[in-house]
Amino acid sequence: IFAGNGFAYAARGGGLYANGGILTVVDTLFANNYISADSENEKLGGGVAAENTTSTFTRCSFLSNYLRLRHGNAFGGAAYLYGGNVTFAECAFKTNSVVGYQFAAQPRAGALYAVDVNPLAIQSCSVSANYAQGPNQIANVIYLSGAALNATIADSEIADNLYPGAPQDICLASAGKVTVSHSISRGSTSGGFVKTGVGILVITNSLIVQHPGNALAVQGGTVNVMNSTVAANSGWGLTNSSATVTLKDSIVWDNAAGGVSTNGLTATYTCSQDILAGDGNMTTNPRFAFGYYL
Questions:
Q1: Mean pLDDT, to the nearest integer, of 48-75?
Q2: Is the dihedral of CA 275, 276, 282, 288 positive or negative?
Q3: What is the pLDDT of residues 101-146, one digit of tens each?
Q4: What Cα–Cα distance (Å) separates residue 175 from each residue in 114, 141, 248?
Q5: I want to staple 131 with a disulfide (CB 3.0 to 4.6 A). Which of 1, 163, 187, 255 is the partner?
Q6: CB 241 within 8 A of CB 218
Q7: Are the CB atoms for 108 and 75 separated by under 8 Å?
Q8: Chain centroid, CA 50 distance in Å
Q9: Which residues contact 204 (CB under 8 A, 6 or more apart)?
Q10: Residues near 276 by Cβ (< 8 Å), separated by ≥ 6?
């Protein structure tokens, strides 16, 4: 158990810090670890920080770890990762946070912040009740970036995260490649995904539902959505400014602001609330039988 550890100055890893080498953590609780500082220097990873490390976390819980700042940047309430390769398997991230006050520049990612990790695997994890709050906050829950990043989120649920100020739960900022499969993004107080810059996002066999903002806001790169359902969001299902988007064998339904932005879009065999050009597309009510499953 790593509990109640921290720093009252800018630092890395309130509970645990690793730089290089191999780190294996099993059946471990990280709770109420923190970095709380007023200095301009960065505060990185309230629970754990790992840089250029081969790290594996199995059946670990990250509970109520936090970053607090009045100046500068703070990234990753539960975990901050830079380089190396990292696996989270059967882990839980709950009530972790990043909060900035007054002159704080960018509080980011209440749960997880990762740059140039290759590969990053988030497997069979639950992520709930995390948040980022303060001036210029970015990514309520997860922030992924870097051309070298290769991340997979599989068989996981990202749901019921907090604080309405952040525009999205997950921000992909020029992230190399991110694959989301057999996962659920649901019911938080912000949008689902925002993707900016270059890079590839692939979503397969997943649900993105019940967000009060846009489910997918795409601003660059390439996005492929297959065998997935995007439904009952208060914003758009998928809005696109300058990306190349492929939508196949999916359902986009009952999103309040609109279904799918058609610029840069190739859609096939998709059931949509809007009429979409392309083979096999339809506008027939999918009549969900259980939640948002058919």
A1: 94
A2: negative
A3: 776 668 899 999 999 999 999 999 999 999 998 877 888 899 999 9
A4: 10, 16, 23
A5: 163
A6: yes
A7: yes
A8: 18
A9: 179, 180, 181, 182, 225, 226, 227, 228
A10: 247, 259, 260, 262, 265, 267, 270
- pLDDT, tens digit (0-9, with 9 covering 90-100), for 262-290: 999 999 999 999 999 999 999 999 999 88
Which residue type sits at 91? C
Cβ-based neighbour number of residue 204 at 10 Å: 18
What pLDDT does residue 72 have?
A: 78
d(CA 251, CA 23): 41
Q: Write the DSSP string, the chain.
A: -EES-EESSS-B-SSEEEESSEEEEES-EEES-EEEE-SSS-EE-SSEEEES-EEEEES-EEES-EEEEEEEEEE-SSEEEESSEEEEES-EEES-EEEEEEEEEEEE-SSEEEES-SSEEEES-EEES-EEESTT-B-SSEEEE-TT-EEEEES-EEE----TTSSEEEEEES-SEEEEES-EEE--SSEEEEEESS-EEEEES-EEE--SS-SEEE-SSEEEEES-EEES-SSEEEEESS-EEEEES-EEE--SSEEE--TTEEEES-EESS---STT-B------SBTTB-
For the whole model, what pTM was predicted? 0.96
| C-alpha angle 35-167-113 in degrees, rounded to nearest 5 | 35
